[in-house]
Amino acid sequence: MTQKVRKAVLPVAGLGTRFLPATKAIPKEMLTIVDKPAIQHVVDEARAAGIEHFVFVTGRNKGAIEDHFDIQFELDRTLRDRSKIKELDLLAADLPAAGQTSFTRQQAPLGLGHAVWCARDIIGDEPFALLLPDMLHYGKQPCLKGMIADFDSHGGNIVAAYAVPESDTSQYGIVGVKAAGAHQAITEMVEKPKAGTAPSNLAISGRYILRPEIFSILETQERGAGGEIQLTDAMIKLAKQQPFYAYHFDGEVFDTGMKIGFLLANLALGLDHAELGAPLRAALMDRLK
Ligand code: UTP
């Protein structure tokens, strides 16, 4: 029987240079998408998929993330004194239960592969989910939920992918697949292929289910593109020993680590928001007249 995916790694130690100066003093994961920090949207996705333990790989200046997932005693007391029950319920709904979070530190931002490796002791010898918090997945079904259902049926390692324009493939990790369809065997993975050499237009979207053997590969993984320890390089090695499948996410993916992706995510989620959707639409129509 396949082992259950119980734990998720959320690497949040990156510098967020593409979003400076906004990210000089505030972690990019704490920038708000409509009415919640970006990281909360991703934790909600993981909870909806049944994840029981959240492992945050943090770095310098990321204390606000840890505070966000803790009780703010003074705030709670003030809200209680003022009978702000709705607000108290809102805060409680966002909070993982006691003991469900772990924080480990990546002392230097040596790359995503290195950040994942920093979580090895907390994950131990079991398959785990990896969610990049700056990639917001927006669709009918939470992306990770579909991936876990796939994993429960087929096992292996799973990488979520989505179609990007052919002209943009050199900006992403790209997977080559055996055939079309929702659950496809991956034949090739390449990090930022040179223009015209990509095996497909399916980009890795920042959601993974990986087996724990990835950690021993990361242990000795040398620096790759950009002088960073690349997760894709380690996955290419693991794919020689274990099957990898692509999960085609049926929804929209926003790179909220980029200014334009962040704005588009706010628009998409804002227009669908129960209270804000109608006034936002009206204001936009007015502005675009
Ligand atoms: P990015 O490639 O978006 O890097 O990382 P970044 O440093 O956050 O942002 P830019 O490129 O400078 O604007 C993808 C994810 O991996 C994490 C980031 O926090 C982000 O969630 N990461 C990246 C780490 O945790 N450690 C690293 O060394 C690099």
If you had to describe this structure to a student in words, what would you say it looks like?
The protein has one domain (7-255): Spore Coat Polysaccharide Biosynthesis Protein SpsA, Chain A, CATH 3.90.550.10. Helix 10 crosses helix 11 (277-288). The protein has helices at 38-48, 63-68, 73-81, 85-94, 112-117, 120-123, 143-154, 214-219, 231-238, 259-272, 277-288; strands spanning 7-11, 32-33, 36-37, 53-58, 101-105, 128-131, 135-139, 157-163, 173-177, 183-191, 202-210, 244-248, 251-255. With 289 residues, it is α/β, with parallel strands linked by helices. Uridine 5'-triphosphate is lined by residues 11-19, 57, 106, 109-112, 114-115, 132-134, 257.
Q: What is the strand and helix layout of this fold?
A:
Elements: E1 7-11, E2 32-33, E3 36-37, H1 38-48, E4 53-58, H2 63-68, H3 73-81, H4 85-94, E5 101-105, H5 112-117, H6 120-123, E6 128-131, E7 135-139, H7 143-154, E8 157-163, E9 173-177, E10 183-191, E11 202-210, H8 214-219, H9 231-238, E12 244-248, E13 251-255, H10 259-272, H11 277-288
Parallel strand pairs: 1-4, 1-6, 4-5, 8-12
Antiparallel strand pairs: 2-3, 6-11, 7-13, 8-11, 9-10, 9-11, 10-12
Bound molecules: uridine 5'-triphosphate.
